[in-house]
Amino acid sequence: MDPASAKVIGAGLAAIGAGLAAIGVGNIFGQYLNGAVRNPEADAKMGGRLIFGFAVTEALGLIAAVVALALAFA
Amino acid sequence: MASPLEQFAIQDLTAPLFSIGGHHVAVTNSAIFMMGAVVLSSGLLLAGAGKGAMIPGRLQAMSELFYEFIANMIRDNVGSGGKKFFPFIFSLFIFTLFGNILGMLPYGYTFTSQIAVTFFMAMVVFLGVTLIGLFKHGLHFFSLFFPHGAPLFTAPILIPIELVSYLSRPISLSVRLFANMTVGHVLLKVFGTFVVTLGSFGALPYVLGILPLAVTVALTALEVLIAVVQAYVFALLASLYLNDAINLH
Question: Could you state, in order of their start, the residue ranges of all structural domains in chain B?
Answer without folding.
Answer: 26-49+56-246
